[in-house]
Design a protein that fits this description.
With 414 residues, the chain is mostly helical. The protein is built from 17 helices and no strands. Helices cover 79% and strands 0% of the residues.
Length: 414
């Protein structure tokens, strides 16, 4: 391996075409990263009820809470340590930590073991997904950053959908455990081998871009990214709300659909449509973020999500739920690559890993906040009330973007 050596001039070129081999490899690896989340996507709430006899929604959603908190914290430290320890080393570390996850899910004798598996999964996701995001941004430079993020998130979330559908189908034929989780052993093995043997670190690409950057350094990366900077703060609050509603969809929709008479296979398909459209849509929305107003894309994406969630209350048929899941997925596709492209264009390359880490800290805390809030609301009132609350919150987030954010090129879209 030559990661510690200074690359030659050719390897230091920035751009998607110039680095397509390493970029494509990282896209493939991120598909395996997404597949790890897909293992749980459609069947874990049913396992909680059927095998561990857990009835309270707050208890069932506890696995999302610990996943969200550990992933969020790991995101932050991955961003903070990326320049010091190297992106590739953090990527490999993430895969090693993920090895026990499918085994724990297969053989867990109690719900606490499932919680432990989700602690490890959160660390795995924070290290691997954050590393691949930063490495791709390093490689492509400024020109195709939205498209690059679209490809990255496309790979990750199509894999979430595909593996979520596969585990739902396997569970409907062979039972909830252990067979659906055998997929996880292949995923973690393939991700580790590819990352260890074939990935090259991209720190020197970031250093090259820094030499040409005119963007001023942030005075306090954490505070500026969290709220103080108008653009960065607008993106960060929207990221938190986006994952808050995703946490609700992940935890409550399988339960909602099962109470309305849908089979396990139907639940698996409907819950797979949302991340599937989310993933596929980013092939287009990522490229759009390079050419159109990022502010307007974020506004309309969040607004669409909120409207779709409110209309879930009126849905009664498989077709209704499928269409609304697709709309929710497209709204999320509009914002997800745009989040990262917006953060990247508003910060200096040397501040970028830590700023992205801070954004991803707050964004993925949305999983935990969403699971806790919607679990409590569902237990005290009902699932419908939780959906209304989160739908309205998502619309409010879109209005924050519209009122506070300005396009980087200085053209306000208000």
């Amino acid at each position: 391996m030559t990661d510690h050596k200074m690359p030659n001039d050719e390897s230091l070129q920035l751009g998607l075409r110039e680095n397509w081999k390493q970029f494509s490899l990282l896209v493939l690896i991120n598909a395996f990263v997404g597949g790890m989340v897909g293992l749980e996507r459609s069947i874990l709430p049913q396992i909680a009820e059927a095998e561990f006899h857990i009835a309270a929604k707050t208890a069932i959603l506890s696995f999302i809470v610990v996943f969200g908190i550990t992933k969020a914290l790991t995101n932050y430290f991955t961003g903070a340590l990326a320049n010091r320890l190297g992106r590739k080393n953090l990527l490999i570390m993430g895969w090693i930590i993920g090895i026990p996850v499918p085994l724990l899910l297969m053989f867990a004798p109690s719900w606490n073991w499932v919680i432990a598996a989700n602690v490890l999964l959160g660390i795995n996701q924070g290290l691997t997904w954050s590393s691949t995001v930063v490495m791709k941004i390093d490689l492509v430079g400024e020109k195709n950053r939205g498209f690059a993020m679209g490809l990255n998130e496309f790979a990750g979330y199509v894999a979430v959908a595909a593996v979520g559908f596969a585990t739902g189908w396997i569970a409907s034929v062979y039972g909830l455990r252990p067979y659906p989780f055998y997929l996880g052993l292949f995923i973690v093995g393939a991700g580790l081998i590819l990352s260890w043997l074939f990935v090259r670190d991209t720190k020197h690409h970031s250093e090259k871009e820094s030499d040409d950057s005119s963007i001023p350094r942030l005075t306090n990366i954490f505070k500026d990214t969290t709220w103080r900077n108008n653009n960065l703060g607008s993106v960060t609050q929207a990221g938190l709300i986006n994952n808050l509603n995703d946490g609700m969809v992940w935890g409550l929709f399988p339960l909602l659909l099962s109470t309305r008479g849908f089979t396990l296979q139907d639940v698996g398909l409907i819950t797979a449509i949302y991340p599937g459209v989310w993933g596929l849509g980013q092939l287009f929305t990522g490229k759009m973020a390079d050419h159109f107003s990022k502010k307007l894309m974020l506004f309309w994406g969040m607004f669409l999500q909120g409207i779709a969630l409110l209309f879930f209350l009126q849905a009664t048929t498989f077709f209704h739920y499928s269409i609304l899941s697709a709309i929710l997925g497209f709204g999320t596709a509009m914002v997800y690559p745009t989040f990262l492209a917006s953060i990247s264009e508003n910060v200096h390359p040397q501040d970028r890993p830590k700023s992205i880490g801070t954004f991803r800290l707050w964004r993925d805390l949305g999983y935990a906040i969403g699971a806790i809030l919607t679990g409590i609301i569902s237990d005290v009132f009902n699932i419908n009330t939780a959906i209304v609350f989160v739908g309205l919150l998502t619309i409010i987030s879109s209005l924050v973007i519209f009122m506070r954010m300005t396009d980087k090129r200085g053209i306000s879209s208000r």
